[in-house]
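Batch 3, record 17
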Amino acid sequence: MLTVTLYIGFAAVIAAMAMNLYRLLAGPTAEDRVLALDTLYINAIALILLVSIQFADRIYFEAALLIAMMGFVGTIALAKYLGRGALMD
Amino acid sequence: MKLLLIVLLPLAGIVLPPVLVRAGRTASAWAAATPTALALVLLAGMAPTVFEGGVVEASWPWMPALGLNLAFFLDGFGLLFAGLILGIGLLIILYARYYLSEDDPMGRFYAMLLAFMGAMLGIVLSDNILLLVVFWELTSISSFLLIGYWRHRADARQGARMALAVTGAGGLCLLAAAILLGHVVGSYQLQAILAAGDTITASPLYLPILGLVLLGAFTKSAQVPFHFWLPHAMAAPTPVSAYLHSATMVKAGVFLIARLYPALSGTEEWFVLVTVIGLATMVFGAYGALFKDDLKGLLAYSTISHLGLITLLFGLNTQAGVIAGVFHIINHATFKASLFMSAGIIDHETGTRDIRKLGGLRHYMPVTMWLAAIAAASMAGVPLFNGFLSKEMFFTEVVVESERLGGIGWLLPVFATIGGLLSAAYSLRFVHDVFFGDETGALPRHPHEPPRYMRVPVEILILICVVVGVVPSLAISTVLATAAGGVLLQAPEPFSLALWHGFNVPLVMSVLALAGAVALYYQRDAAERWHERTFPAFTGKGCFESVLAGAIAASRRLTAWLDDGSVQRNVVLVIGTAVVMAAAGGITGGLDAGSRALTPAPLPAVAVWLMGVIATVVVALRHHDRFLALVATGVVGLLSALTFIYISAPDLALTQLSVEVVSTVLLLLALNVLPKETPHESSPGRRWRDGVLAVAGGGGIAALAYAAMTRPLDSISRYFLETSVPGGGGHNVVNVILVDFRGFDTFGEITVLGIAALCVYALIRDEAHTMASADTEARHPRMLLIGSRVMLPLLAVVTVYVFLRGHNQPGGGFIAGLIAAVAMVTQYMASGVHWTEQRLTGNYFPMIGAGLLTAGFTGLASWLFDVPFLTSTFSHVNWPVVGDFEIASAVAFDLGVFLTVVGSVVLMLSQFGKQQPPVEGR
Amino acid sequence: MEILIASGIGVVTAAGIYLTLRARTFPVILGLTLLSYAVNLFLVSTGRLAINAPPIVHEGTKAYTDPLPQALVLTAIVIGFAMTAFVLVLALKARRELGSDHVDGRE
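Prediction for the assembled complex:
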């Protein structure tokens, strides 16, 4: 049961990542790309959690936590850049 | 220990003369003489042991695995040389006190002289040939400084440079020879090498070794065709010439030939090379000396000639030849040093060294005349002086050798006689032209006898010349037997030193030489005319200069061709070379896959791979849109972090993710100041060329990675995995390696990180501006502001958590440091530089410094417990929530890592943040 | 999996080389970033691939991946960041002094 669920999960996450990547590369606006990257980070969290479940190991949870935080900060930086050009002023 | 002191005393004494010269010139001379005399006393203390046939040894291992040891030994031959170096050195120090003028910086002179003396002692006492080479190079360098002592004079500078170039090149040959010798014998110990003569001469590497050793020795001893540097080294102050060119520097080459005699001699190659070069040098030098008008120039060529004589004697492969060679080393040192000093006295008191201007000095300086005349007679080989004895022995040996050779062997005594004849002729000229004849009236100064103590060194040496010449067996035979025993590695057969050996061929040769010399001297005008007709000006210096100019021009052209100032071109050359070399290695060495079983690849991995490839290709092809390229690079970074997780590298994933975000911030900050677009300017041809290079490089790396991954692994990591918990107190082996096993590496790396941050700061601090900004909604959106401030404590908690767990779970100082840096950078972005630095800090140097000091002191603390630097110790603690973790000294080290990382990263980012975009249209 | 990692490293390297050969500083720096991704992956992969075997010592677990390359690469990532920052500073400085972001300092 869990195996099947995992497969479905993997398929869904991969599909989401592929679509995000398309949006990120195709654009057309810079805002599209930033949003796509942010979502890609969230997809990555999901992927790591799925892998952790598959391996039955909690050791990777910290990585997921870190992606959540770092993805947020990265998005702030990109958004700030698009909004004002200057990041720190 | 005493042996080491002998070498170290002069070297340690270097500091004294320049300091004490303020207390007067005599004090400076005493400061130089004291370590020399002390070393001489130490040497004398060991002399009885050596005379009884013993060898004094002292050795300290340094890198035994590489054969590098600080090893010295003193045998008879070493004792002779060390005695000459120190004894004559002492006389030179006294002499120089009176020779140098008020304007010459005396402290510097004595300091260099002591440095040279120490290096020479190192050569003659080393028991390790690599150590010997080191001292050899030190003599080259210190003699360079001594020859160029009058640095305001162009000829001194050029002479010094030439000496350094020639002897330095010889030193490189010697280094190669030393390495080959060590390879053949299996040891760098000199005594082991000397004992392995048969192995060396039988080795296929014998010829290269011999050639390289002889190149080293011949350049140092100014043998033809490398002789030309020596006459130009006469630009040095005369005490330097007297020291370097009588007993020390040029004798180092002869010393090497004698020292390695047991290891290399006894072969036909040795005989031919050493004898022929020695003979050629002897005749050439003597001939050259005859036509020199400069007193020191005459002595320089005469030195070349006598060195050739000594070399020839060692080339004969006979025991008697070795004894004669060693004897002539002693004699030449005494009479040549006194001649140089006499020339110096004449120069000092008359103001010129030009033989054509000198004459009739016997009226003004009679004592000096006698001293110079005796020394010159010894050089000419007149009976009753020491030079006669060794010359007789030399003539005897060449006669014996010519009988053994047969055929054209008779050439040997003929040339020997010619050499002796020329030698006597220029000696006669030295004395007669200077002290006798008429006054020329061209002297710059009114001549008179030198100061009392300037003559004392000459008198002592002349005394030795006479005593050895008159009662040789009493005065010198023990010393000679001991020294020759050191060369031969066994006590030599009994030999007789006597003035009278009966009527024999050598005596006839001597008489012929002396008579011929007188005849030649009286026909010297005709001889000079003949010389000038036959040998038009052709100098070794000219050759050297043109070779040098050619080499410089060639290297300029090569440099200009390789580096025309275009970075792009350089990068193409570097990468192209790397690709070609790697391809050559791959083709010849083989890049086939190994036998290791492949790991299955699940579909999600394939999907991630595909996304990574697409993102990478987009970065490469659409890099003109810089923002897109930056975002796509971020995707590649994220995906590589995911890869790290999948291939069991959680620590790397955490590090990569944190670095990813700070890199993105960094690049965005830079992009703010740089153009947003890259112009399309590369020609299609260049793009194709770069593409081909890129595909070749990438393909090669891929093949290499695949070959590596599919081969079985035998790693040293088993040790780390096994000892991590019991030895380092941590379950996370990666972290234990970083802070414990390889802590010293990590210490170096955080130092580099700190330095990089400081460089970044220093390079752009001038353009950094902190402006108090209006805290408006447009500048700092409220939502972002609140979000970031809420996140700060959250990130702080995560930082502490990751840091403390790092020793047992993924995490540690590096990752925690990066997270903390991100937390602080977030504040910068949300609230601005001004606001943040008001509340946090704008000064990150103390943090970097504190980090490095913490890490360093943690390492040093190990010394308190008498264990090596950075040895870690630990005990376990159990905190709620965080779980079981250990308090190890390694945690303090990790704290240092943490602080350095935070300080460096925030310093760099904030510095970039303070840059203002350029005004458009600039 | 080995084929995927090896070819991935190859592609990233190729893109990195191509970009470092460009004429403007920013693409060159991106190229260096890509190259350091590739190098880090390569170095880790020399410890061979092991799935779900992180080098965290547990009771009862026998198989671990090689921790040594990981330790080396961990510091390499951080130093790589410092290098990027340093090169960026040079780029900034060059642009300011020369008025151009061409790597040769001239258009």
